[in-house]
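Reading a protein record of the kind used here takes little practice once its layout is understood. An example of such a record is reproduced below.
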Amino acid sequence: MIAGGFLDNRKLLMFNIEEELRKMPEKPGVYIMHDAQDAVIYVGKAIRLRSRVRSYFRENIGRGPSIDKMVTQIARFEYIVTDSELEALVLENNLIKEHNPKYNTLLKDDKTYPYIKVTVGEAYPRVLFSRLMKKDKSRYFGPFTSAAAVKDTIELLNKLFKLRTCSRVLPRDCGTERPCLNYHIGQCMAPCEGKISQAEYRKNVDKALEFLNGNYNMILDELQAKMEAAAEELEFEEAARYRDLYNSVKQVSQKQKITDSDLEDKDIIALDKDGGEAVVQVFFVRAGKLIGREHFYMTHVEDADKAQILLDFVKQFYAGTPFVPRELILQKEIDEVEILQEWLSLRRGSKVHIRVPKKGQKEKLVELAAQNARLVLEKDRERIQREQARTVGAVRQIAQLLDLPILERMEAFDISNISGFENVGSMVVFEKGKEKRSDYRKFKIRAVSGPDDYACMKEVLTRRFVHGMEEAQKLEEKQIAQQFGSFTRFPDLILMDGGKGQVNIALQVLEELQLSIPVCGMVKDDNHRTRGLYYNNEEIPIDRNSEGFKLITRIQDEAHRFAIEYHRLLRTKDQVKSILDEIPGVGPARRKALMRHFSSLEEIKAASAEEIAQKAQLPLSVAEEICLFFGKN
């Protein structure tokens, strides 16, 4: 059950918080807080929804400054009732990941980790790289923190045990194709040709599994014996190959710095916090061996203690990773342990335990993880501050310069042409001072011919905002929640690559569409460098050494680059087409056939008449004309 729904501003004003609180049930579920712009600012779960949500609107209950500030911004809320607290936990994680609410403690990193996948369910198994762990008949090893290390390990295993790397379905496809290059260079036993029995091939696979389980000694002994035997037979190249493999295996085995006698999979999790910054360090222990570590940044942690940050991390991290270990070793006692263990056990398919060690080796590992988190926090603080200054800090400077209350999303537009040839427009988007490339858009000008940048810009802006308004209307008509895409979400500031003229074009378009969005021009000096901003009919100087100026320059350069690349692409395509159109006997249909079967103009030039006729299915006489056109007899 959901309270609320898609609201426009009029409906938002009609939302009565006290009345909606009385309607809420005392059931488990998830609640979603919205601000006046209807953005999601907080997501939480509760065993009893009414009691939990009502508590936010009571005074003086020690919630902390951040939550107090959040409460003042709540314009409405909605809720979803679930059958259990476990369902609420899962839904809460999904909604936090979907909306990235401003006042939730958030896991900043959104990573997928590589695994080594052995397809033991196949007749002739393969060793593969995978970022997903599925419920299939394969065996998975990991997760690992380095994709490069995983690929190196897979390459080593394939060389050691001469396993196949092809995607053929065996034994069904046996004998249908010739063996690949790996067979001819001695790196595959060619099961595709029946040159090795399934039983013999399986022995090699079993050795690979032994290796992945950490049993290196057997392989090291075997490699050393082969190396010595080859040397005795004076086969020095073969001996050198075994020597190199021996050194590689030894290097891999030496990376296992920590072992645990219980041979269980576990994650060691600890953190360090300083003000509004927190770093969580995770040690990945698989089959009793430490295979790697990774650190994660947590945001919105000003009022959260270490236990709360750990709780939020566990929920968000293990909602996104396909592998859940048998045991989580934590630095601090956390709330909701029982429900978390139940949820993690369901995800793993067997019992998962959450423990906080007080002594012994596990306690030392937790302390080691905490020390690493502390080092990362200290080392990266300066880098984080620099990054904040050049992104969020720069946006703040621009907002202050233009006296804008809100500035998060900026869109910049540019036009590119050569004497009016192939007019194109570009739209680049920056959010919180960073490029949002998924929202970039290209426009091929339809209604303007010739070098008229103002008319081209008017077309681009009109198409951009009309499209956005149409999509927003469709969303409202369907009564579904706001899902801001590249067009439906409008910018807080429009940046024009020019001064008064460009700004006036944008303002004219916005006025015709009855939109109110600030527009700012980037005014250039005689050397075509930005010297200031044109805003509200006046030129505002800007410090060239400021982060705000540097961000404006980056946005301007990015808009230029994106437009020029698109224009260059269209020019190239047009040049290819125009050259082919000049060949006698080649019309639009035959030109398309040539471009479909040849990847480039150079490939057409290099081909013989017979090849052109066969590949593009053209008459030989036409193919000969093509060769003659390009100077070939």
